[in-house]
Amino acid sequence: MSIPVRNLYFMLCYAWDRLEEAESIPVGVESTTDIKDLLARILINGTRRCLKEGLDGGYLETEVVVAGIRGRLKVTDSIAQGRMLLGRNVCDVDEFTPNTLANQILKTTLWRLSRVGELNANLKRAISEVLARMGAVSVRHHLSRHDFQKIQLHGNNRLYRFLLNICEIVLNDVLVEQGKGTYLFKDFIQNEQRMRQVFQDFVFNFLKRHQTHFSVARDRFHWDTDALPDASRGWLPMMETDITLRSQDRVVVIDTKFSKHTLQSNFGKQSVRSDHLYQIFSYLKNLERRGPPYDTAEGILLYPVVNQEVNLSFTLPGHRVSVQTIDLRLPSQQLSESLLRTTCNVVVTIGNC
User: Does domain 192-344 have CATH number 3.40.1350.10?
Assistant: First the structure.
């Protein structure tokens, strides 16, 4: 599946709900055709802005040897090292420093990108300049997804959250270590599981921003199993829709799919994928117990265009279900209008990301 770089950036901005932050970083997205160059430019220019405004810092506990007492006195260490006899003590003090985990992740990501062999030479030079300006920040040689979860950012540094979203993709999805400090860049569009989440969040946040006909949410609910004893019902997993659009008299359940095959083929005959159809219909039937308007809810299976556009509609017992595709190669404004028309039957003019 091929998605233009400008459209991938457009999707990521919405998926992370970071439109304003993205617009504040000039990256020349319209002239970029290489995803690794785009991600590198975002991190370079975004980090430059952070440096200009002053890197976000934090208080970290540091062990120091001082005359007298500062912070928390470490009596055992002071005695063991013989410091007290010299009028000095070992203490733990909180020092304000830019060497925070968030800045370490930024610097580490840039450092690894600079070691991608096929990265543009001008971008490598720009990265070297940024790394030099981050001299007080350490490079971490071991990072995991868990490290990203430990970061706490305040409301005034939303730019950091956007940059860290980029870092997480680079570190976990597109860089492969080759050894001896060199890295290979892989196309994360081929990561179907990751792109399915991006596609789902893109559609969810896009609809939340650009239409007013429906409320946009995700419904969590139990299976309709009143006939089963409580002990048995407890073993059934919760159900959750990708997207639920709701107005006073209408509910639309959207199940997003990011798949290499929109339809299934059996003996040369194409048909709707049965597992996907069972899933959306199961949502609709189990939501009926909520009463109107859920009892007549509509379902949409939404795919990106792969080899062909698909626009199918069926009336299943009590519910209308459609299978729709969105062409992610369209210019952003046409893509926006197509998405609104397909999901909400409305047309709104949307500016570029």
Answer: yes
User: What is the chain's alpha carbon radius of gyration, rounded to the nearest angstrom?
Assistant: 26
pLDDT of amino acid 352: 43
Cα–Cα distance for residue pair 124/115, rounded to 1 Å: 8
d(CA 57, CA 97): 5
Residue type at 297?
Answer: A
Q: Model pTM?
A: 0.83
Assign 3-state DSSP to the chain and report helix, strand, coil percentages, each to 5: 45, 20, 35
| 163 neighbors 143 (Cβ within 8 angstroms) | no
Residues contacting 222, CB < 8 A, separation 6+: 233, 236, 238, 239, 286
Strands 263-266 and 269-272, bridge-based pairing:
antiparallel
What's the CA gap between 13 and 20, in Å, rounded?
9
Query: Residues 107-132: pLDDT tens digits?
Result: 999 999 999 888 889 999 999 999 99
**CA-closest candidate to residue 36, choices 63, 1, 8:** 8
Which of the four pLDDT bands, split at 50, 70 and 90, describes residue 321?
very high
The tokens for 83 are: 């410091």
Prior bond to 293 cis, omega within 30?
A: yes
| C-alpha dihedral, 48 to 53 to 55 to 56, nearest 10° | -130
- State phi, psi for 66 to the nearest 5 degrees: -135, 160
Q: Boundaries of CATH 3.40.1350.10 in the chain?
A: 192-344
Most confident of 166-170, 204-208, 316-320: 204-208
**Residue 238 carries which DSSP code?**
P
Res 192: pLDDT: 84
Instruction: Name the residue with tokens 């070992």.
Output: 90
User: Is the per-residue pLDDT at 320 higher than 90?
Assistant: yes
Structural tokens at position 239: 């159900």
Torsion of CA 129, 130, 131, 132, to 10 degrees: 50
- Give the distance, in angstroms, between the CA of residue 83 and the centroid of all CA atoms in the same chain: 51
- pLDDT, one tens digit per residue, over 216-268 is 999 998 887 766 666 666 778 889 999 999 999 999 999 999 988 888 888 77
pLDDT value at position 348? 47
